[in-house]
Design a protein that fits this description.
homodimer; alpha+beta; Arc Repressor Mutant, subunit A; Beta-Lactamase; 2 domains; six-stranded antiparallel β-sheet; three-stranded antiparallel β-sheet; 9 helices; 9 strands; 42% helix; globular; DNA binding (chains A, B); HTH_MetabolicPath_Reg (chains A, B); glycerol metabolism (chains A, B); transcription regulation (chains A, B)
Chain lengths: 264, 264
């Protein structure tokens, strides 16, 4: 397994802070300045990335530090603060699913020794609300909060396969990024792939992001029977047994759904 | 073990949104309206809790939904959205520590079958950046993002014991909330308690929050030798072996520090 490139940081509202006319919007553009490749920023870097003047950035950063959204380190650089962790723990889609799923994801990790992901759809992307990384010298660097295009990951393919046909077509018609020579970016091939996932209940994705990896993913249904999330195991392709992985994943998925179900 | 009350939601900037003069401040007061007991809110509830007029709340909520900080469900109620989860994953204090610690916390959980916490200090409180809950009918309901006064939890006592004397005195002089009849709220007794923690390197807290529980906690040091976090195990007091727990915790803490250390 090799370390994958960091998930592209997408801002659905556009990166240019200058295009945000409201004060509240400018504050959000300060937060948008931070990303996987920009975890700590100086004040002038924030101003530049957010498209703000230095005095405006200074005032907004001050408010955000006071509130706890940002923290200032000893060298005067800023990073995301713990108040946002606290707040994000209130996200119902993140928290309930994560708590229901965690023991079962832990079991999956113990049994398969692979990287485990719990993903939900957000817009046209999948966001990992839980990730357990395999131990070893080169674990896949997936993290909680990572965001990926749906066509490129096991969990994303499962979620896309069970979405409205309209949304599927919207994704298939959009530019599909290629992460490796194996990434399926042909809309017709993807459409067949999605049909097979619906039919079998399992997505098997080979080398979609990093060549030596194989991802197996299945849906997780809520008490109403809707697909609320997807779970996946990523292992090195040379030691992968996709059928066995699909069996343990399906078992885990059912256990999670039972935990999500209405209590007696 | 019994289910503990939800951690009090503290807003260090005060709850009244009306006292926030700036537009950016009003946006933060919308986010402050959400808490452990207020995970989903209607627009009018947000306006009332944030001290805003309905039109102002409507406009700010619209911006926050567009950005992904809030989500609107089918019934028109709002909750915290996944964009905040994504952003909070960038918090260096949360992420690096969590990743370095996770395999060792998992081992602790397997060995002790208890609730495991990884906490860092934020202001005068401890925030759990990781929590693994014991399985069973009534696990302690600690969650990632939970925030507690330092005097009341094992991790908080460890962090407080290793803080500047000035901050210690500030905490000891402040009103100390009592969560159970066992919560130590007498400043002199607490001061002795903190000295013992510094001397032994271990905090043993009995029934500080819920009577039948015993927490054992130890510090986690960064490569510079500073206390960066604390880890704890919480088990039912009747089956607790504090010395053994202290041994495995110390072992895990050293392993985490080694992972945090400079790579060759």
């Amino acid at each position: 397994m090799t370390v994958i490139p960091e998930a592209p940081h997408t801002t659905r509202t556009g990166a240019a802070g200058g295009s945000r006319p409201t004060a509240a919007g400018r504050m959000l553009s300060v937060l948008d300045a931070f990303g996987p490749r920009h975890r700590t920023l100086s004040l002038s870097e924030i101003a530049r990335r957010a498209g703000l003047t230095l005095p405006t950035a200074h005032r907004l950063v001050g408010e955000l530090v006071g509130w706890g959204a940002l923290e200032r380190d000893d060298s005067g650089r800023y990073s995301v603060g713990l108040r946002l962790l606290e707040l994000s723990a209130l996200a119902p889609r993140g928290l309930e699913l994560r708590e229901a799923a965690f023991p079962h994801l832990e079991d999956l990790h113990q049994v398969t020794r692979g990287n485990i992901h719990l993903g939900v759809r957000d817009g046209r992307e999948v966001v990992y609300i839980e990730a357990i990384r395999a131990r070893g010298p080169n674990p896949l660097s997936s993290r909680v909060g990572d965001r990926w295009p749906m066509h490129a990951t096991g969990t994303g393919l499962v979620l896309l396969a069970h979405e409205d046909p309209a949304l599927q077509e919207e994704v298939l018609r959009s530019p599909l990024e290629r992460f490796s020579p194996m990434t399926v970016v042909d809309p017709r091939e993807l459409r067949r792939h999605l049909a097979r996932i619906r039919q079998t209940g399992v997505a098997v994705a080979r080398g979609q992001i990093t060549l030596p990896d194989l991802a197996v993913a299945v849906p997780v249904r809520d008490p109403a029977g809707r697909v609320a999330a997807a779970i996946s195991v990523v292992v090195a392709a040379d030691r992968a047994r996709p059928r066995e992985l699909a069996c343990v994943l399906t078992q885990a998925s059912r256990a999670i759904s039972r935990t999500l179900g209405p209590r007696p």
